Amino acid sequence: MSLAFTSALLWLIPLAGAVLALYLLKMRRKDLRVPASFLWPPMTEEVRANSLFQRLKWNLLLFLQLLALTLLVLALARPQILQTGFGGKVTVIVLDASASMRATDVAPSRFEEAKRLCRDLIDTAGPGDRVSLIEAGPAPRIAFPLSSDRARMRSALAEAAATDADADIAGALRLASSLTSRLESAQILLVSDGVFPEVRDFSPGRASVRFVRVGLAGDNASIRALGITDGPGGATAYCGLECNGARAYEGTLNLFADGRLFDSRRVRIVPESRATDRNGASPNLASSSTTGETFRIPRGAKLIEARLEPPDALAADNYAAAVPDAGARVRVLLVGKGDLFLERALALDPRVTLDRAAALPDSERGARSAYDLIVFDGVRESPVQSKAVWSFGGAAGISPVELAGTPARAPSRMAVLPGHPLMAAVEFEGVFIESMQRVRPKPEGRVLVESEHGPLVVYAEGPQRRLYVAFEPLKSDFPLHVSFPIFVSNALGILVPRETVSGAICVPAGRSFSVGLAQGGAADARIRRVAAAGLDPPSTAVSPAVPSPSSPNRPLLIRGLADVGRYELSAGDLRRTVCATFQSSEESRIEPRDRAFLGGKQVSASTRTSRMGDFWRPFALVALLALLVEWRVFARRS
Amino acid sequence: MHDPQQSNADPARSERPTIEPSEAEPIRANPNAPTKNPSIGGTTPTAQELRVLDGLRLNPRKAFPGRIRGERLTKRKGLSIEFADYRDYTDGDDLRHLDWNVLARLDSPVLKTYQDEEDLAVLVLLDCTSSMDFGDPTKFDEARRLTCAFAYVGLSGFDAVRGYALGTRERPTPYFRRLSSYLRFSAWASAQAVAESTGGSPSDSSESQPARTRQGLSASLRALAASSERVGLTIVLSDGLDPEAPQALRVLAGRGHEIAFVQVLSPLEEDPDLEGDLRLLDAETGAKVEITANEGALREYKRRLREHCGSLESACMRVGGRYEKVLCGEPLGDVFRRFRKKGWAVS
Questions:
Q1: Chain B interface residues (partner A, CB cutoff 8 A)
Q2: Could A638 and B276 be called an inter-chain contact, meaning their C-beta atoms sit closer than 8 Å?
Q3: Nearest C-alpha of chain B: how many angstroms from A61?
Q4: ipTM of the prediction
Q5: What would the pLDDT profile of B242-283 be if each residue is shown by its tens digit?
Q6: Do B277 and A42 count as a contact with CB atoms less than 8 A apart?
Q7: Domain C-terminal end among A279, A304, A325
Q8: Both A92 and A172 in a single domain?
Q9: Nearest CA in chain A to B138
């Protein structure tokens, strides 16, 4: 048993002191003259006192009063004991389904242990308990809504699965808060290992938040990065390794090219201040537990995979893949105040490596550019040397337009030039644009969307491909339309053309991505998991859901692949290899946290699902009984 | 058989003072004497109450030697009509008491002797200690009425009645022998008040009695026993609330007195109506006792009171005396009917 408000016990000092003082004070008795005092026995029962001073004597009333007072103060301190079940509260269970929950330091895994805890909780739920389960994966979802149907709860819980990706714990908690916001006594139960960033933009409202921790150890080695660079002597792969926890990792780093082993090195990764030695003989002192290995990769290799063996507690980060093909990677610099819709739409392309900047870096003002595409989102554009430029709103010379006046408000009629691949499956009908820049197209500019105030979208070919959009996405509701990611995907395909359509694709696990298809190839699109390099074939070959495009011209949008590994995408005659990788420094640090920062306060972790329920009522009841007995004794004595 | 203690002559009955029925008020020698309840609690008996006492005579168990001729037979030989014995004639004997029948038949001079008749000393002891100032009417008022009543009965029987105020060092009254002295006796009784005590503030202890000196009940009884007072019927009217009272009564009886103890108690003493936390102040000694007047304490008090009253009664019985308890407010007629029934007085 513990006390919720231990400080309330301090009230016992003045209150008990006051009661004792009343008994220490000598009673001022009423004087009465009697004929003979020798007939009266000196039988005094102290029932009250109001004068100074006397020796404290044993008194049943004093004992009962102190007992009642102690019990009342204890009740005020809100004693709590471990209780099973939900106590009649509305409970929203947030089940962490991130990659770290797949760690096997708890058999069979943290996630299964978390499910077992949730199952135990559901089994102890009373008839009045209403429970909901939120699966906190990359995209939080309500596994089952608030309900008292225990069979349904168990079924939904059995279907819950972890992913090899970061979890959006903050989103899941906000979702849970929205479920409990209108309820008086609700609780949000987060079952997790605590391996997630601080959750700041979350308020539980009137609900209480509990954090049940699963997991035991934090020992984990991971492939932090796998990159390929072209050099004079050929392509070189760099493999960054990291070790977390208390114990060093000793194993083998195997490198595969197109599924064939081409290099293997013995590594020993020491946490903290020690680094890897190639042969594991004499470790070099370093300031970080991260170290790297470089490999020269075979010519003509299309897919490089790395694997640490034997696998440790978390197998997902022991695998990495990279594509040597230069066209398979597109470096994009987004210059602007920030637009989440645009960033997400750009990231849908698995080739894109996105950097962000509020203003154009000085390094990009020179003769060479490190980026394939520079996007000016609402900021004044500057001359750059990148392969392509994409401007929203402002135009300053490099765009295929000239300014033609002050901004215009809310165009009502917009006409799309049909047939251009940039506008394939893109519709502007119903799009509201708050304001747009009045421009005139330059001679090389081709107007793709026209309005009554002038061109909306203008594209120009040339050594440097240029695309101009006369409005900022955030000043319209275009990002909320389904055409927006298609438009961005089309623009990327036009501005930075895919040099190959048959190469492998590397995507982070759990993240949605799009793949451009040939005409009519999306009708029978399927993706299935195949054996990754050095791994046994997966136990199941169930394909993840692939949405059927409504139009054959649309790129194929694939929702996140839950598991790390190699997949094969087939659509018509198209066969592409998709490698889902997991590289997260946060999730690789799998040591369970003792407390979590949730919504502006630290929540201490508990390893039990049993809750500390209030236990003040029995104390108050016994105190009341003590007072009744005291009153009875007082009445009899007086 | 003729009661040896009872005289067959009543020559002085004609001296009885006439009290008219119109004199319903208590007889008061002292007009300032308090009268708390005229119906039952006056300081002296009313004329109607005295009328109930007419014809009663005190009935002691023992015979006491008298000082002068009176109405009570004594053990001494003397002149009366009560035959006592025969004895041989000796020279000088009064020939009038010679039994001539015996002389004629036996030719032997035999003299008849007779019991002597003398007065009876009746000491009426009125407890004036502070403990008597309790109740409504007070025990002192009740004792004072009974004192007057006993004096009235004694004077009616031509006994030598003398009043003592216990608890004080005042001198007793002279011996009153005629009913005509009743008024003087009642005046004395009315003038008595509760003696001043150190323990409390008795209402009657006033500056008007600066000469009164406080003395406990047992001390007063022992002082009387130690004095040269003639022995006789000693009627004690007191509450007896002195832990030494039983011993003092035995001492007094050992001196030769016949003890008739009338314990006057207030109904509130028999069943006190107290509650709460109290500090009890002894009216006589000033001793303090702190109590919580709850059921247990009251039960213990009643047990102690019963024990004390029992010890008083036992002490009286063991010395051949009498004991009777009277509660304040009891009608005088009822009280004396009880006395008569128990042989304290005869018609």
A1: 130-132, 134, 139, 199-201, 239, 241-243, 269, 274-285, 287-292, 294-297, 300-301, 304-305, 308
A2: yes
A3: 14
A4: 0.73
A5: 999 999 999 999 989 999 999 999 998 888 888 778 888 888
A6: no
A7: A325
A8: yes
A9: A35
